[in-house]
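Example protein was shown:

_____
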Amino acid sequence: MSGGPSRTTARHSVSRGFLAVAVAAGILSVAIPLRAEEEKGVTAANAVRSSPARVRLFDVPLMDQDGRNVRFVRDAVGGRIVVVDTFFTKCGLICPILGAIFADLQKMLGDLLDREVRLVSITVDPATDIPPRLKEYAAQWEARPGWYFLTGEKQNVDHVLEGLGLYSADFTEHPSAFLVGDVREGKWTRLYGFATPEQLMGHVKELLAQRKGNPPGKDGQGRK
């Protein structure tokens, strides 16, 4: 079809247009009606809060956007540094902002993506977000290898989210939050609000620098 925007144009429109206005200006200051799933976690960019986090990683079976069966720890995150967010494909406002942030972070990572760092987006609505929907959603952000979109049986997805501290009983009220962590070293930071790609990249670089002074031991888990 002709006459419509290209996928690349559409992604940059969200990433550089909507994200810049909605986040940098602070969408709380704009009087617009929000659905339930759009209200929780909507904050101005300067209201981002970060703190050390304790997480539990459960190696349960899930599925990625290509329909492959993956174990959460062994296959999806491995021993890498990871940045995690949550979403659902029918989300109207919060999730597109999070997706745009990850899309810009993906660009910043360059060849670090998949080799040393992974982006992991976990749906909070696995009943709806089956792999074909995730595949289409991932294409909107031009996701490259190393950016995983995960779904699966609800009990398994919920178990993973509970361990990460990202579970909400009502998935439409999932918070806008990111986790940045070094799986090998067990160091995690949770950021609430719309952290910028630069903020997330700063945490990633810090973890990468720390790794240089702590090479993996024989078990691959690093010195303690």
The longest helix spans residues 7-24. The CA atoms of residues 12 and 100 lie 8 Å apart. The beta strands are 49-52, 61-63, 69-71, 81-87, 117-123, 147-150, 177-182, 187-192.
